[in-house]
Amino acid sequence: MSPHKTASPAGSFHQDLPHMSSSLHAPSPAGTADSFYSQSRYSQSSENTSISSIDDANMIKPLRPGVYVPTVVFFNESEDLDLPTIGEHAVRLAKAGVAGLATQGSNGEAVHLSHEERQLVTKTTRNALDDAGFHSMPIIVGCGSQSTRETIELCREALKSGGDYALVLPPSYYKPMHNPDTIIEFFQDVADASPIPIMIYNYPGAVAGIDLGSDVINQLAKHPNIVGCKLTCGNTGKLARVAAATDAVTPSNSGSGFMCMGGSADFTLQTMVVGGSGVICGVGNVVPKACVKVIDLYAQGKLAEAKKLQAVVARGDAAAIAGGIVGTKSALDTYLGYGGIARKPLPRPTKQDAMRYANEFKEVVELEKSL
Question: DSSP letters of 48-90?
Fold first, then answer.
């Protein structure tokens, strides 16, 4: 297993470019026709998004074990982006002690946004964090798409917008034509060409049931520009195998630097016990302190207390999963005074829906308020 510490440097990402060029699939030579996937293509782009053109403000921030929140995107009644609320929400989460944020995920309604809007959300999040003094907080950006070409384009745009890492789903629209080999080639091609490190996103529910096995993830983890994974499949056995094979970073051991992340707060403690690095969890939008507390107690060796809190967080996360983004936004409205609507065709919650969501989140919100 190749070490990944240099894939998420504390300093400028420029220093790792030579390391990147030795990846499993060598980029196409400069000057080759249609060499979109070559690193040289970036320096030729009219968008000026080459690595050498990114200023010091866009140095890659290192990942550390803990809770990462895939942030909700907010709209006004006209379904236009509510940029002030996007920024304020990001700062609220940072102040709660999360390790980092993720934009353009399921909670971020990435599938409802244009490329320009996606960039604006990430840029707004980065600017808000910087203005509040959270300069070192990393931002992971969802960059999954159905084609290798567009996925690479989204990775480029993520860097340009202030993102530090790209979270990438496997392609799924042509599912019958895919097999482990095509999926591996997809991730390797993206990792070869992306100007920011990649995290593998295994979420079968979002990709027509494609479920990456531990053997596939472990093979991909050898790529120097693949630095982590998010396992929303909920398979803690798989997570244990990947964490062990990659020597994943934990609160007590820096390991290889590879981040093996659970994809939901309802198995936070299970993730940590089997050697995982933390969680990327949607319920953290509503109760970030409660999510962070579970990992803090585990790291302090207070397993009995962590177990009690994990049970409450798991019940709250069940509400978040069942209600989806509509339920999460409704809970934010009820308990924090902001949340708003999701873009159509997602439904608007009725008064009865809002009351149900409030009741389902009540226990975990009370825990949050006590911390």
Answer: ---GGGS-GGGPPPPP-SEEEEEPPP-B-TTS-B-HHHHHHHH
d(CA 88, CA 124): 10
CA 64, CA 292: separation in Å to the nearest integer?
13
Mean pLDDT calculated for residue range 232-254: 96
Residues with active-site annotation: 230
Work out the angle between the directed axes of helices 303-336 and 288-299 (0-180°, nearest 10).
Answer: 170
Q: Are 290 and 313 in contact (CB under 8 A)?
A: yes
pTM as predicted = 0.85
Would the pLDDT of 12 be above 80? no
Residue 144 DSSP label = -
What distances in angstroms separate CA 153 from CA 19, 35, 132, one per listed residue? Answer: 21, 13, 29
Cα pseudo-dihedral 196, 199, 200, 205, rounded to 10? -110
C-alpha to C-alpha distance for 281 and 290, rounded to whole angstroms? 12
For residue 69, give the nearest of 47, 91, 37 by alpha carbon: 91
**Cβ-count burial of 149 within 10 angstroms (0-12 exposed, 13-18 middle, 19+ buried)?**
middle
- Rg (Cα) of the chain, in Å, rounded? 20
